[in-house]
Amino acid sequence: VAGVRVVRAERWGPDFGHAEQATRSDSQGRFTLTGLGPGKGVVAAHGGELGGSVDLELTLGQERTGIEIRVEPILKPLDARVVDGEGQGVAGCLVGLGQPVKPMELRGPVSFFWTDEEGALVGPLRNGSRVSVRSLNCPGKLAKREQPTVEPGVPVTLSVEDGHRLRGRLLEAEGAPAVGYALSISMPEDSPWSEFLALDQPLRSDAQGRFEIAGLPAGPLSVQVWKRGRIGPRFEVSLGEEPVSEIALSLPAYGVEDPSPGPVATRAVRVVDPEGRPV
Fold this sequence. Notes:
Blueprint: E1 5-10, E2 22-24, E3 39-47, E4 50-58, E5 72-73, E6 80-83, E7 94-98, E8 110-114, E9 132-137, E10 141-143, E11 156-162, E12 164-171, E13 182-186, E14 210-216, E15 219-227, E16 230-239, E17 244-250
Parallel strand pairs: 6-11, 12-17
Antiparallel strand pairs: 1-2, 1-3, 3-4, 4-5, 7-8, 7-9, 10-11, 12-14, 13-15, 15-16
């Protein structure tokens, strides 16, 4: 079958955020998916009223050929789109659907779907039942935790909004660039926004210590930094309403943290001997 959308969906894992997992079958019904990480997943095909899927498990570096997906008529195809604030479809979003639990929670079985160039979810629901949105990740966009229930055959629109962008530079205590640190964002528990950010790869500071995070809400955020063999502090920041905010973050000397006040609050840490004397 030609022109069928084919996507690999899996649990939260190493393939998250890589658009190479989605493609279309050619005139001979053939397809190729690249950039896949190891683990269990599902390869789903969906075109018009036809759909089907097969389970697929890969080991690291493995190449699989000869996979066949039999597509059959779907009684109630998935009819959901992701749109921005202007009602335009948003491509390249990763949407996790599963049985209703707390909004934007990945506990339990979750099926992932990519959105196509029109913002439509790619692939059929395997069990055909009503599901809730467990994660909604669009590059540079914000998604609220509360989203409509998705039911096969029923049109539904999932909404995202433009987010703010945080640009910064991470420095070591002596002022040198802090290179190769991973950064993650967490939001207050009462935040209405989902904190599953659509990063194409793990966010790390570059050779100059610079980093950039998009799709953030205005208001308070926590930025956690770490590196193999070293866990850095959690920086508390607050973004204004401007589209882009810039900030410089300084790491403490290894094992010691400066509790002095400033625009960025950090957690105070002291290293002492068994008798309580500073080391």
